[in-house]
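hey so i finally got around to running the thing on that chain from the lab meeting. sorry it took forever, my laptop kept dying and i had to restart like 3 times. anyway pasting the input first so we r on the same page abt which one it is
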Amino acid sequence: MPRTRVVILQIGDVHFPEASRGRSDVDLKDASFPSALIGHLGGNALQAVTRSVQAVISSNKCDAIVLMGDLTSRGDKQAFWRCLQFLEQAFLRKGVTPILPDRMVVIPGNHDVNREDAKSPNLEEKFDHINALLNKAGMPEIKIDRSPVIRISKGAAALRIFGTNTCVGCGTLRWFPDLVREKLITTYDAAIAEAMSDSDQRKILDDLYETLDTPMVVDALIASLHDQIKSTNDFTIVSGHHNLVPQATPRIAPYAEMINCGRLRDALLGTRRKVIYLHGHVHDDPIHVITNPNNKSGALISIGAPLMTDGFNLIEIEFAASTSSALGCRVRKYRLKNGVVAEQPSTEIPLALDEQTTLSEDHRKMLEFINEKRMAYGWEVLEKLKFAQDRMEEIADDLTWQNKISVERYSGVPQWVFKRAY
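ok and heres what got predicted. didnt touch it at all, straight out
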């Protein structure tokens, strides 16, 4: 029976148009060095990663793309649209299975919020321009109180991707005393006006965007996510810009993390399911598995994406052929180094809920045989249990994902070696 696999392309913060101009692989310390020569010392990082993404899409059956937000910087509306057009032209309607706009989830990031729009007391209003552009591109809109959902179905296996807006509080003016608030705004406005260069102005604006951010998710969306996940047997991926686990690098800021991320974590764990959470924001690629000892059937797998100029992730969810339950998640990491994007060692995370849902009688027979012998060759399994080769390989894959056995297969030799996991 053929194995079912769903493949999601995860792309981190872009920060366009700076990313299209910057070079991550040239350490320029001599400002007087001829600019004409710099162009021959290293390629543009964004272009290199874009070419690699296109190659992956062409060789893999990607089912959806999730962009983790911060398409632009400092709420630049025109740059947001240009970035959206760039990504659409680069990635959509290409590959083995063409990806259509409605299979691309774009999450808003704190840098996508325009600060003038954020002055409105209506929290939804500052996302109007983002949603208008997403709608124009044929992509799902992101509301503050409800998630867009992409459902991917392959045979009996099904997966849902939810988009969440974690930037509801971003750009909202804090309730300082009037005098303090007025002086703070006046100070920032004066500093921006007196900035000696575009670079100085960008630094001031970046500080403003980070300092006045209050990342959060509205309670109505948290409750809705919990209920929707509980009401379906589909495997679930939730995506949001901000991280659910504090970043490794110490972050000194008034609101360094999403202020109600604990409530969102508890709600997702409370579904008693395995749920994957994809995020960006921290410009790093941590992977965490969060569990609750009082809730052994649930787990939250948090996967961060690096800056797009540093690479991207390919998320593969593998389903059992016989039961169509999710067996495992493989995070394939493509990273830019010395001007070349190369695949790094992947991370594999088991997802099987419990052995009752994925272990058939054949699974138990093979597991008992391997445990009894401690080590068994493939030909022994075929001879003893009378399995077909394909069936043995399918069961071996299932048991490996559940960390019940380890498997070795020697290159060029049709020989399998199975060992018990303890």
